[in-house]
Amino acid sequence: YRENILKTAKALVEDTKLLVSGAASSQDKLAQAAQSSANTITQLAEVVKLGAASLGSDDPETQVVLINAIKDVAKALSDLIGATKGAASKPADDPSMYQLKGAAKVMVTNVTSLLKTVKAVEDEATRGTRALEATIEYIKQELTVFQSSEVPEKTSSPEESIRMTKGITMATAKAVAAGNSCRQEDVIATANLSRKAVADMLTACKQASHHPDVSEEVRERALRFGTECTLGYLELLEHVLLV
Asked: What are the boundaries of the signal sequence (predicted)?
């Protein structure tokens, strides 16, 4: 399935270019670009799922790495379409145009990451390091979203935020063990666990910080510590990668 994935991903990059240029053209062209990209991402998701299935059920962690990679691309495409919609018919110096360029850059980064992951899957010696690199990139993107001024759609209790930090503790222990063993399967498992643990923590932290009972000072502190925790964890993953 490798060649089919590469070919479909290449088509998606072309769709991305049409989407970005479509913001400055007619509504019809923009609609065509959006529809085309939606069709292509569906095809890409299907062929990546087939590729993951072909690895066999005895390697579920690598299957998860592949599925996560296509999920990242789909999320980036959704964000890009949203940014295109916001920038449509706006002048070149409008802030929405900068958001569009940023969204397009993230999209290309995630497609590139998917392709690297697909190539690494066939090489057992690099599977773990590639999974770790992809997770580091994913966490950086999640941190950018966390640090944005966007208010979460719902709030949660401080207790929920505290509960989510336990996942970070577990993932940290796993990362240290993987750094000691240097086994590719341990590194892959660490990458998958780290990704979920940090994303859950950031979501819970931001939602709790916007709880109606939280003061502005406490909100700022919570957001600051959420950022510091994530940066500290990224540093840990970078060390594992180095080892």
From this structure: none
Q: Architecture of 125-242 per CATH?
A: Up-down Bundle (1.20)
Report how far residue 1's alpha carbon sits from residue 16's, in angstroms, rounded to the nearest whole number.
22
Q: Token digits for 42?
A: 């569906």
Query: Residue 222 is which amino acid?
Result: A
**Cα 75 to Cα 68, 104, 200, 205, distances in angstroms:** 10, 12, 16, 21
C-alpha 224/C-alpha 228 separation (Å) is 6
Sorted by where each begins, the domain ranges of the chain are: 1-122, 125-242
pLDDT digits (tens, 9 = 90+) for 190-232: 999 999 999 999 999 999 999 998 899 999 999 999 999 999 9
Confidence (pTM): 0.83
Selecting from 3.40.50.11810, 3.90.550.10, 1.20.1420.10, 2.170.150.70, what CATH number does the domain 1-122 have?
1.20.1420.10
